[in-house]
Amino acid sequence: MISLVIPVYNEVELLGALIPRVINVFESLGSDYEVIFVDDGSTDGSLQNLVEFRATNHHIKVITLSRNFGHQSALTAGLEYANGEYVALMDCDLQDPPELLVEMYDKLKTGDYDVITGYRKERNERAGRKILTKLFHRIFSRTSGLTEIEHTGHFSMMTRQALQALLSMKEKTRYLPGLRSFLGFRQGQVEYVRQERAAGDSKMKIGHLFKLAGDALFAFSKFPLRFCLYLGLFGIVLFLLAGIYVLVSKMLGWAPIGWSSTMISIYFLGSIQLLFMGVLGEYIFRIYKESQNRPLYFIKKIYDSVNE
Ligand code: UDP
Ligand code: MG
Fold first, then answer.
1. Ranges of the chain with pLDDT below 70
2. End-to-end alpha carbon distance in the chain
3. Is the CB of 120 under 6 A from ligand 1?
4. Pair 201, 71 in one domain
5. Are the beta carbons of 98 and 132 closer than 8 angstroms?
6. Exposure winner among 69, 73, 128, 156, fewest CB in 10 A?
7. Is the pTM of this model over 0.70?
8. Average pLDDT along the chain
């Protein structure tokens, strides 16, 4: 069986276009399948719509969460529920063509791969977002050492063995493409052109994207700590030289040295310390979140053959 997990947050205008396309793909494959929609606390009738689709095709299963938990948690909920021997993940905005699942499945079936990701050879998306995403991927792949992730996102399919490894990583702040890349195994790619969202606005506000980028950087690299270390080293060198200058001036009788240099040192040292404390705070917050060990999501109801 193949499972496909799709998180849904207020996407009612897209489901009508998405579901027939997905079903077509699976019917053409001829294997048993399940399409698991995770309703992440939608308020626009998406759930109603999904349940209606389920009535027409029982391969469609619906999990509703108790509120909006976010993209990463919704995906995790679906992955933990999935039963397939192969499991795929996809967003529901048709930025990634469902037809590509066939190619992914064929590649996995050869037995030469454990994970197949969609490689975006081009992106037809809005310029601002494109630049920011590109910048993030550049920094992320350089600092984390997970280079294969540069042109990939969530769109992917993997074997049950790889999925089990993925789900064994229980961290609370999750960045699934990073975790997937961290897995290792034999990872392959299929190329495609990523499209603009088929309808509606992105459900990931720009602030969410920055948060996700921060989570990824903090979880997979020492970059924030390194950055502080280098800035601190730079400060030491600078102020060592400045200190020598002050002493020499004193000895040569050039003192008193002016107000500007004093103020600049105070500002510089003050802000550098605040920055460092902020970075340390981020780490402490993350440690705290892990130690609270709260579940990533709560399920309200599952619509499948067992629960109906
Ligand atoms: N999504 C979700 N919960 C959220 C935000 C988004 O389940 O809190 C879903 C959304 O419905 C979509 C996917 O996650 O299927 C990706 O969201 P979106 O396309 O808005 O993100 P982008 O592609 O702009 O990063
Ligand atoms: Mg999208």
1. 257
2. 21
3. no
4. yes
5. no
6. 128
7. yes
8. 89
